Sequence to fold (256 residues):
Amino acid sequence: MSFEPRILGFLCNWCSYAGADLAGVSRIQYPPNIRVIRVMCSGRVDPEFIFKALKLGIDGVIITGCHPGDCHYIEGNYEAVKKFELVQKLLSKLNMEKRIRLEWVSASEGNRFAEVITDFTNQIKELGPSPLSGKDLDMELMEKLEALEMAAESYRLRALVGRERKITEQENVYGEKYPKEKFDNLFDAAINNEYIRNRILLSLEKNPKSVKDLATQLNIDSKEILNHILVLKGRNQVAMEDIIENQPIYLNVMER
Ligand code: FES
Fold:
C-alpha cells in the first residue's frame, strides 16, 4: 500500500490562503494530503507550532506566506524566514529538516499553490513516514525533539533570531557592523549549546546524575558536559543534590 503522508500547512490569510482558495475554485488538482491552518501572517508561525506537529507524528509541515515585499504587516515574512531557519538548523540534528518547507504564494497564484503542495507531498513521500508516526514511539528520538523545542524557546536563541538583522545590518556606536559570517558561526554554536543543555535538563528531570553519568548517557565528552552544567547552575536550572564517591550529583530544579 502506498504511503499517504499527513501534511500540515500554515497559510497566511492575505496571500497564500487566497491562493489555495483560487486553486480550489479553479479546480486545479493537487494531492489531498494537506490539512490547513489559516494564520494572519507567516511570521505568526512560532517554532513551537512546528515542533508540536512533528511530535504528534505529522509527516511534513509547510508554511506559505506573501512574497517578500508584499507582507500585509511589512516584515512578517522576514520574521518567518528567521524562525524557519532556526527550526531547520535544529531539525538538521535529527536529519528531519527536509520535513519542513517555507514558500511564498500570492493570492493570484492558484497554480503555484498546487505545484508547491504537489512537490512537497512528493518530497515527503520519498522520505517516508515520520519516525514518530507509528504506534511504537521511539522515546529517545521524542526526547531529542523535545530538547530541540526547548532550545528554540530559549531566551538566547530567541534573542539572536530577533536581533540578527540589527546586529548584522546596522552599525554599532563605533560605526562597525558585525560580519554575517561571524554571526552565523555564533548562532550555530548557540544552537548546539542550547540543544545539549536541554538534553541535560531532560535527563536530570528523570533522575539526578553525575557529570560522568551524563557524559555516558549522552555520548558527549565529560569536560563539555561540565561546562554546560556550570552554565545551567548559573541560570539556576540545575543544582548539586549530593556528593557520592567524590562525585557531585546534579538535579534539575526548573519548574515546568
Ligand atoms: S501577511 Fe502574508 S506573510 Fe505576512
In short: The pocket of FE2/S2 (inorganic) cluster is lined by residues 12, 14-15, 41-43, 65-66, 71-73, 76-77 (CB under 6 Å).
